Every structure is written in structure tokens, then in C-alpha cells.
């Protein structure tokens, strides 16, 4: 197997004489200590001397301790196997390269910047391996990888334990083959701070493996970004909406016959918990007691794609819960659905191709909206939201063997305003202070866009019922999002996102915070037809080993082809359920916060033929069921194509005296106004 390493671009900033001297001293100390991680840290020091000196000893100490730790807790996301051959042979030239080795410490404004060069052999499949180690105290962080200005991977990190954690995620990446075949500027933007109470640098390794499979699927011939286009400044390119206007302009030639736009969006700050928001008219219900308002614009969010100001499609977001969210102890070592790979939602814009191919400039815009209400049971879509969302989009253009679309025909658009029903009620204490708030929001929408070149239709429904009691200290929500997307191309996507959250807050003493909570969530997803993104089924048409996400080195297991009677274009189906409960404590006495909890997750991935559910066949491919109590995996059952396979079980942390997770208490910052 051939290996090569992507070269790091030099730092663009200059160092002062004082900083240069400190680097020499530190380098000498690093050589003496034989600590490669320290050298990595030194080479990636930020410009600011203050940051370098205030966090330096903390980073070096943490890197030393983590490097010497031989048994970090293995965190993992449950997902289907990803095929990656190790040896050259029937899969051509198997070529693995290191894309990035980076310690993210004080990296706000300082992403990794490197140059990717294609491998010296042909390929049609790419898989990527991202491994992270972290120890101490740290928030969860978001990371985005770009090839040029195009976002290709979005992830979040796990909050660490004092003894350290490690995780690996393997992702299929052949949807970007047209980018992989050219030299690219590679940017990985993962802002982090190692200073003061934040003691956890993120030690990362990113590799890619290139190879050839006989069952080659169609991928885009050209890929364009809907982004800020900041790669020329060595910066990430995602928009921060609503402060940014997420808008780009393109003109197209009449050489394409299919076009798809993918949307990537997730909330930050107060919008991270958008599903806990209330109607704007109720946001100040408990403000007299807490001094703060609840999150506004209702718990409904819609990501809109507009072409020349007209609605082309929507995405109703999945309710991701990052590892510091709600009760952090629930998410160790098993993370919530999708934590390490925040998926994109695709919208077929082929019906617009004739209109777009007139040689004129056309505007693509992404917006995020909620609901505005008048306090009388009436609501409309809002123009903004509270906080901000990290948003980007990608345009995939295809030129297959069929005829290109050149007739300048505008599409027919049927997209009425969504049907919205809202209600709320309040009760008061004997003294007249607000005691409780209950609310209900229902939204449904249908849209259809068609022309002689194609059609796109979406039917969606949303419901959220919530309550805040005990003067806002206890909140309970039940939410469901359902959708069905269909394209004339044969692509369809049917999905359901259920969510239930219960949290209770208290302040046992001055300077302390206590939280108990439970959460259950799920994902039911079926994808049929030519998706832009790999659907995982193609891995089971290969008679070769695949890498399983079971431990830090990814366990190798043998796959076998799907039954010969199974159709090649079968539906890929995921059914995932998750439930957990936990407690969280934060005290000023020892400047520490503690969390513990339990978690169960059940995962099933299968292939179905077109008539499955009405007498059709289905093929169970991969299942896994895991239960965790206080960091310890107490049950882990996995099957591959109906056969049970061995699964490594995490060490018994509780027996070693470490039954609680020590985690930064960012919840006190998020929710301090409610206690």
C-alpha cells in the first residue's frame, strides 16, 4: 500500500522576537522529552503571544498525559459498515494518504490549511478516516472540512473525561470524486480554546483511501459552492445566518441534464436547542423572576433554498444533540444519532435547469426561518431566528449520456404558505407570578416544482407540544417531524424524526446548579434511487472485508454480496432509536461539574426492494444494540447479515472508581437564567 502525506501550508503570520525565543526553548524541552505531540503544538501556535503563553503549559501538560495514556475511553457513533480494502488487487491501486495531522488548541481564526494532491493511480471510490483524542475539560466543538470553498464534511466532538477519550469515524466520500481528482486547498476549521479551565486540545488525524470498485455509481461532473468563498484567505467558508446573507450568483451553460443542491445547517448558541424554543409572544413569561427571556420564534425551523428569490425546496432539520447538550453524562461513550457526521439534505433542482441555462446570472440563497405569532393564535413564517446557524450549500451538476437541457423554460411552482396552528396557555401562583406555560405548534407544507426537464415534490408535517412548570424550572417537549421528498429521476426520501425531552433545574445552594433529565429520539429514514450521497447498500454488493466502527482501530469483518435476486437499486433503510437519562451537578466550591447517566441505542440498517412493506422482500444487513450505565457498556449485541459478530466492550470505569464524567458546566451558561 502506498502512503503519502499532505503538506501543511506555512503559517501566514510573523512571530515577535519574544515568541521566537520561547519557541526555541520549548523545542529544546520537547526534544529532551521525546514528545512529538509537543512539537506538533509548537508548529501550530497561533499568532497572539498572549494566547501562546497563557495556554502553553496547559497544552504541553495535557498532550504529555494523553500521549502516555494507554487506555482512553473509546467513544463511538453507531452506523453501518464502510468498505475500505487494505490490499491492492481486484480493487486496483489501494492508496492511503494522510490528509491532516493537527492539534487543535487555540484555533479560533486558525484552521488547518493544507494542499491535497490526487493519488498517482485511478480510483472511483474514496473513504475517509477521522480519529480524535482529547483529555481534560473541553466543550464539544464543531469541525468543518472544505475542499476549496466547498464543505465536504461536518462533525462535532465529544466532551472528554479526565482520563481521556478517543473516537474514529469512517465516511464514504466518492460524491466528491470530481474534486478529489484535482489538486485542492484543504481547510479543516475546528475552533478550540486551551486556556484557563479549558484543558483539552483536540489531537486529530485524517486519512483518505482511494481505490476502484466494479460497481461504479454516477457522481457529479461539476460541483459548485454556496458559501462565503473564503479559501483564498485560508479561512472556512460557511455562512453565519442570519448575520450573513447566504447568497451566491452563477451563470450556467446548457451542458447539464441533472442538478441537485445539498444543504448543511445546524444551530449554535441559543439556537442549538431550537426545539426547546417557545412562541415569541410567550418568551418573557418568566423573565421577571429569571431576568432572561426564553428562546423565541417557536420550536419550528425551516431551511429554505431560494433561486432568484423563489422557493426551490426546504429542509426541516434533524434535532441533533451534541455531547454537551441537555445532560452530558448521557452521551458517554455512545453519542447521539449523527453526532460525528452531520448529514446534508438534498433538493433536486433539475426542473430549474432550462431556466438557469440562459447564460444570465442567477442567485442561490439559503435562509433559516421560524414562526412569528401575535399572541392570539395566529402565526406566520419569521424573517429571522434567535442566535445563529452555520450554513452552507453545494450544487452538484451532472452530464450523463442523455440529452442536455437547453430550452429556457421557467418551472411551474406550486408552493403555498405552510398551514400553521399555534396555541398556548399560562397559569399563575397565588401571588400572581407565572407558574406554568403550555404550548402547541403544528406546521405542514406541500410544494411541487415541475418543468419538461424534471419535477420535485415535498410533503412535510411538524408537531411540537411543550410545557414549562414550576416557574420555568421543569420543561417537557414532545416533537415529531415527518417528510417525503420525491423526484422524477426516481430518487425519493422518506423520513421521521421523533424527539422527547424532559429536564428539571434547581439551585441547591448559592453558586451551584443541578440538572436531571431524560431524552428519547429516533430516525426512520428510507432512500430510494439515485442519491447524490452513498447510501451504504453498495458496500454489500462487494465480496470483501469492510471496516466496522467497533473500536479505535476499526475491526475488519467479512461482507458477502446481497442475494442475487435482490435488485441493484434497492432502498436503503435506517431505523434508529435512542433513550437516556442522567444527572448533572455544577458547584463553585471545587470549580468542577459532574455528570452521569445511562443510554440505550438500537440501530438497524437493511435493504428493501421497491415493493417492501406491501409484500416485497427486505435484507437485514447490520444491527447493533448497546446499553451504557455510567460510562460502562453493559450490553453490546451486533449482527452482520444475520450473523452475530464479536464486539469489544469498554473497560469497567465504575469499578475503577471513575463512575462520573467530569465535564465543563457550559449548561450553567446556557440555562443559568432559568434557575
Task: Walk me through this protein's architecture.
With 675 residues, this protein is mostly beta strands. The protein has a domain at 1-212 and 220-237: Sandwich (Jelly Rolls), CATH 2.60.120.230. 9% of the residues lie in helices and 44% in strands. The strands form 7 sheets. Strands 23, 24, 25, 26, 27, 28, 29, 32, 33, 34, 35, 36 and 37 form a 13-stranded antiparallel β-sheet that branches. It has a 6-stranded mixed β-sheet with strand order 1-4-11-6-9-3. A hairpin with a 2-residue loop joins strand 35 (632-640) and strand 36. Helix 1 (17-33) runs antiparallel to helix 2 (36-43). The radius of gyration is 25 Å and the shape is globular.
List the helices and strands and how they pair.
Elements: E1 2-5, E2 7-8, H1 17-33, H2 36-43, H3 49-68, E3 73-74, E4 95-104, E5 112-116, E6 125-134, E7 142-147, E8 150-156, E9 165-172, H4 177-180, E10 184-189, E11 202-211, E12 222-226, E13 239-241, E14 246-250, E15 258-268, H5 287-290, E16 302-307, E17 310-315, E18 345-348, H6 353-356, E19 362-369, E20 371-373, E21 379-381, E22 388-398, E23 412-414, E24 419-428, E25 434-451, E26 454-469, E27 474-487, E28 492-506, E29 512-528, E30 545-548, E31 555-558, E32 571-587, E33 592-608, E34 618-629, E35 632-640, E36 643-644, E37 661-662, H7 666-671
Parallel strand pairs: 1-4, 3-9
Antiparallel strand pairs: 2-5, 4-11, 5-10, 6-9, 6-11, 7-8, 7-10, 12-22, 13-22, 14-19, 15-18, 15-22, 16-17, 16-19, 20-21, 23-25, 24-25, 25-26, 26-27, 27-28, 28-29, 29-32, 30-31, 32-33, 33-34, 33-37, 34-35, 35-36
